[in-house]
Amino acid sequence: MISSTRAEVKEDFRMLDRIRKVANRIFSVKVVNSKPIAVTLDPPITADPDQKTLLRQIHNELKTHRRELETIRLAATSEVMQDVSKFHRNQVKTLLETLELLATTDVSMSRFGDGEFRLMLLNDFNLRFQKNSPELQEDLRNVFTSNDANLAVGFPQLFRDAHWSGVYQELWPRLVQLTASDRAYACAHVTRPQAFSTLGQRAVDLWRQVWDGKKVAIVTGEGSRFDLIPELFDNLASHEFIYSKPVGAYDDLDRVQALVADSDCELVLIALGPAGGILAHRLAGAGKRALDIGHLSNSYENVFKGAPRPEATAVTTDGEKNS
């Protein structure tokens, strides 16, 4: 059990008060994407030796606190992360294995990340562009527990950082109940920057092999920034766009599915948030190959062109951000 003396608590409050006072004196702040960002120092801290000394003390104190918090985090999540690691080692394909599966077979793919897991398992969780509902939760569970041999269910790559250890600490006891011990899961991060940073040109070649010479339909939200960049997509035989709603796409799936059914495409590529995985599952069940590829183009450009990561780009051309 971790506890603090009254004197230690008072000292922490004194340190926080000193940080606040120094910040108020020297930082110029502007608001970017609704968050305060320190952009300048005015006056320069080098002009005041006392400020320099205080900031060094604050910096050292924060480093110490960070090390202590990291130790606590590792200890608190150790048991859960060992469980997740074992599951991942035994049942989740690697990035390369997943891409080779997609490139050499006709399986469809639905991907799950922390957003889909939280929508599926937490009644009060919503995304900015997708409101939760009992119907959405049920559909996500149906996808995640699907035993359709023509559908690869994507599970996140294993990360042990604060974000993902927190996700699993919160969700794993319920999530593991939905997994099947005899099921092999794809790696959901094949559409993320990790695929290109890890596999380089090999990832590009395998993705291009998936749709080489095929007639493709792209399903995405109206106003989406999804881009058929030539580095990935200039080998399509043809393409058409089918647009859904940029927000709340789950409620539009019946209409979109009907439009896809009327298309003569050979492959459907979907960039539609959590609704995309559900649509891929539906289309696979109807005999149409569909891949939930999310931010694939953004991921390529992040790794090979230094563009912002997918979550830092706008969902639509009017500037709505990913979350």
Structural shape: globular
Residues in helix, %: 40-55%
Reading the helices and strands in chain order gives HEEHHEHHEHEHHEHEHEHEH
Largest sheet geometry: 4 strands, parallel
Give the strand order, joined by hyphens, for the main sheet. Answer: 7-6-8-9
**Gap from first CA to last CA:** 35 Å
Secondary structure class reads alpha/beta
The share of residues in extended strands comes to 5-15%
- Per DSSP, the total helix count is 12
InterPro entries: GT-D (IPR014869)
Protein name: DUF1792 domain-containing protein
Organism: Glutamicibacter halophytocola
Domain Glycosyltransferase GT-D fold: 109-306
Question: Could you characterize what this model shows?
Answer:
- This protein has 323 residues and is an alpha/beta fold.
- The chain has two domains: 6-72, no CATH class; 93-312, no CATH class.
- The protein is 50% helix and 14% strand.
- The chain has twelve helices and nine strands.
- A four-stranded parallel sheet has the order 7-6-8-9, covered by helices on one side. A three-stranded parallel sheet has the order 3-4-5.
- Helix 2 runs parallel beside helix 6 (162-175) and helix 7 crosses helix 8 (201-211).
- The longest helix is centred in the first third of the chain and has 43 residues, at 49-91.
- The chain is globular and about 70 Å long.
- The chain starts with 5 loop residues before the first helix and ends in an 18-residue tail after the last helix.
- The model has no long low-confidence stretch (mean pLDDT 87).
